[in-house]
From TrEMBL:
<dbReference type="InterPro" id="IPR003593">
    <property type="entry name" value="AAA+_ATPase"/>
</dbReference>
<keyword id="KW-0813">Transport</keyword>
<dbReference type="InterPro" id="IPR052156">
    <property type="entry name" value="BCAA_Transport_ATP-bd_LivF"/>
</dbReference>
<dbReference type="InterPro" id="IPR017871">
    <property type="entry name" value="ABC_transporter-like_CS"/>
</dbReference>
<keyword id="KW-0067">ATP-binding</keyword>
<protein>
    <submittedName>
        <fullName>ABC transporter ATP-binding protein</fullName>
    </submittedName>
</protein>
<feature type="domain" description="ABC transporter">
    <location>
        <begin position="2"/>
        <end position="233"/>
    </location>
</feature>
<dbReference type="InterPro" id="IPR027417">
    <property type="entry name" value="P-loop_NTPase"/>
</dbReference>
<dbReference type="InterPro" id="IPR003439">
    <property type="entry name" value="ABC_transporter-like_ATP-bd"/>
</dbReference>
<dbReference type="GO" id="GO:0005524">
    <property type="term" value="F:ATP binding"/>
</dbReference>
<keyword id="KW-0547">Nucleotide-binding</keyword>
<comment type="similarity">
    <text>Belongs to the ABC transporter superfamily.</text>
</comment>
<keyword id="KW-0029">Amino-acid transport</keyword>
<dbReference type="Pfam" id="PF00005">
    <property type="entry name" value="ABC_tran"/>
</dbReference>
Length: 233
């Protein structure tokens, strides 16, 4: 379980996260929703130690992630896939995947076969430069690369951005099955609230850095006033 408690973070005078608290249970997808500037990306960056909070904690088991050096995050089982699908275009698909396995430490050899079984398109493209991949394939590559570190918690920032609905559905279905088969804990930041809630177990809605509401995905999707005010559908 990932427990976020009173998390507060600022960029100079701008308070981007203000006393955010929620729990992301193990083996569930927790969607983090809200408009542009709500603080979603800042939340992920603070949980993964890229930004130091001014107050509050993010705990994974007995570890307070906010005081763990960033380079130890993978060892603790945390993987962060930032927005923007950063692949190394000079390397092949397989070389990019192998980089993900560097975070495994001593937890066994990289399971490239499993990555290829999850994302058959990456197996087809394994020897090609990552430069040739489509947006959807790049998104699959960054997720597959993160999974190679064998995380217990996956932080995903806007995986659906700019992708065709069919590709989004394919990626989200896969996330759902990973959560069910591996007990992976996912924190899914999305502007596309409708799609995110269709696969999430629960959701947290942020506005101007604060939690507006936390509830089950079904309750959030069924709340017309909330959807119109904050979720854009
Ligand atoms: P988006 O979907 O646009 O990324 P978001 O919900 O992820 O939105 P954040 O990117 O976390 O929101 O931004 C929260 C607030 O912090 C906004 O007011 C934003 O302008 C501000 N902010 C974000 N990054 C910085 C930065 N590097 N320097 C200063 N202010 C920032």
């Amino acid at each position: 379980m990932l427990t976020v408690d009173d998390l507060t973070a600022s960029y100079g005078p701008v308070t981007a996260l203000d006393g955010v608290s929620f729990e992301a249970p193990r083996g569930e997808i927790t969607a983090v929703l809200g408009a542009n500037g709500a603080g979603k990306t800042t939340l992920l960056r603070t949980v993964s130690g890229l930004i130091r909070p001014t107050r509050g904690t993010a705990r994974l088991g007995e570890h307070d992630l906010t005081s763990v050096p960033t380079e130890r995050m993978a060892e603790l089982g945390l993987a962060h896939v930032p927005e923007g699908r950063g692949v190394i275009t000079e390397l092949t698909v397989e070389e990019n995947l192998r980089l993900g396995a560097l975070g495994r430490g001593r937890r066994g050899p990289a399971d490239l076969d499993r990555a290829y079984a999850l994302f058959p398109i990456l197996a087809e493209r394994r020897g090609r430069s990552a430069h040739v991949l489509s947006g959807g394939e790049r998104q699959m590559l960054v997720i597959a690369r993160a999974l190679l570190a064998a995380p217990s918690v996956l932080l995903l920032d806007e995986p659906s951005l700019g992708l065709a609905p069919r590709i989004v559905a394919q990626i989200f279905d896969l996330l759902r099955s990973l959560v069910e088969s591996d007990g992976l804990t996912v924190l899914l930041v999305e502007q596309n609230a409708r799609s995110a809630l269709s696969i999430a177990d629960r959701g947290v809605v942020l506005n101007l850095g604060r939690v507006v509401v936390r509830d089950t995905a079904a309750a959030l999707a069924g709340d017309d006033a909330l959807r119109h005010a904050y979720l854009g559908f």
